[in-house]
Design brief:
single chain, D-Amino Acid Oxidase, Chain A, domain 2, 314 residues
Amino acid sequence: MRAEIAVLGAGVCGLTAAIALQDKGFRVTLLSAEEPERTTSAVAGATWFPYKVDPPDRVNHWAQVSRAVFEKLRTDPETGVLLRECHQLWRSPVAREPWWAEAVGTIGRLARTELPPGFVDSYVFEQPVIDMRRYLPYLRERFGAVQRIRVKSLAEASGHGEVLVNCSGLAAGRLAGDLGVYPIRGQVVRVRNPGIDRVLADFDNPEGEAYIIPQPDSCILGGTTDSAEWSLTERAAEADRIVARCAGLDPRVAEAERLEARLGLRPARAGGVRLESQRLANGRLCVHNYGHGGAGVTLSWGCAEEIAEILEQS
């Protein structure tokens, strides 16, 4: 039998790591203070895209691995994974290839005559879109039971296995003593889908980012990126501004029925994702996996694969 692994955190990164390790034959206990449906992952947009995350070289590899998995998962309707055409629209000319081009594969451009008013450039590519209302339950069922526990230290968590995998998100700042961990507050609005079937994004809007993520029954409209902001209080005026910005991408969303507001704190880290092993003071091996910013879903399977490689070598 392989080692008993304790994975701390049942968001998308923790769940995915637990599944990947279990598939490799490890005995895995998944520890979490919250049910998966109450983690930050539950309020994610979510699309495959390396958003608000570093370092680029490692991110590209992890994103590429994850994309291959999502392209397979989209054949199973239970996963909530779809493949959509994405139009990233730009108000200023952009580089021929973005830094994340290696991970996405083929990237096209819209002709100038196809661009909406106010835009001069674009990236066009196929993008996995993940409905977290279905995807998290799918992951949970695939793994099994989650042990609800709120730990005060990594040493305490490491007592539940021979090796600890730390996927604790924002809590890693406190648990790992990492002063570089900080939140990026995100607010989005979910509206009834008025017939949109493409992801649309306007990332250099002077009033703030705008993006529309279509799901079969609804659209996620975003969004905000408030760095080091901890508040989870809904701001009605901000929701109005989000809808107004998104109406510049597709006017139909202005009159679409509003279903809910969503708020979450993306777990970012100065210096980017921390994925490395460390010996804790009690001698137990700990593999850290946190600081994914706005790309937890995007990097989840790639990071899980690397964790499995580290533990197999250990």
